[in-house]
Amino acid sequence: MSPASRIHVCRFACALGALLLQALPARAENVQVTVLAVLASDKDNVVAEKISEIADAVRSKHKQLTHFTLHKTSQESVALGKSVTIKLVDKVTMEVQVNEKPDSEGRITLTIKPPEMGELTYACGCGKYFPVITDYYTANKERLIIAVMAKPCFKGKDKKR
After folding, report:
1. Cα 83–Cα 53–Cα 60 angle in degrees, nearest 5
2. What number of H helices and E strands is found in the chain?
3. Counting CB atoms within 10 angstroms of each CB, which of 108, 121, 128, 133 has the fewest?
4. Residue 98 belongs to some domain of the structure
5. Per 3-state DSSP, what percentage of the chain is helix, strand, and coil (rounded to 5)?
């Protein structure tokens, strides 16, 4: 085969490869979901520094809660349209689903099922925790608060995923 023929074969193979790649469905992007299990009570005024913003948000509606500790941090990589079960405290779990499409602002929408509550769907602000005050209490009378965050955000990307 002449050098010119080899070049034509190579160009054809490259063009064919590019066409095949375009025909493949887009790769599903995973979303990193972080869930904080926070325990709150009225026993003193101690707030773990790492969760001070969450404590401030909760105290704005529940002034009697003054003690906040970070019980557990969980991180899961979840594909769009899939869900995962997260262990929180004791034997209590919560289901988190990453919904299929980002909203018009590019924020990822999650559906969560906190303990002793109904299903909740909301659009996640990028890198911001969404706190949920549950009705679950531990044996030590500490109230479970969950805070959920998802990354990456999809602003500016194809929203038809």
Report:
1. 100
2. 2, 8
3. 121
4. yes
5. 20, 40, 40
Residue 42 domain-assigned (yes or no): yes
Inside any domain, residue 111: yes
As given in the structure block, the two tokens for residue 31 are 């979303």
* Cα 47 off chain centre by: 24
- Residue-wise pLDDT tens digits, 62-107: 999 999 999 999 999 999 899 999 999 999 999 999 987 667 777 8
**Domain total for the chain?**
1
DSSP annotation of 13 reads: H
Q: Please give the average per-residue pLDDT across 119-133, as a whole number.
A: 87
Q: What is the pLDDT of residue 2?
A: 56
Residue 159 within any structural domain of the chain:
no
Residue 119 has phi, psi (to 5 degrees) of -70, 145
Among 1-10, 15-24, 96-105, which is the least confidently predicted range?
15-24
In the structure encoding, which two tokens stand for residue 62, read together? Answer: 């529940």
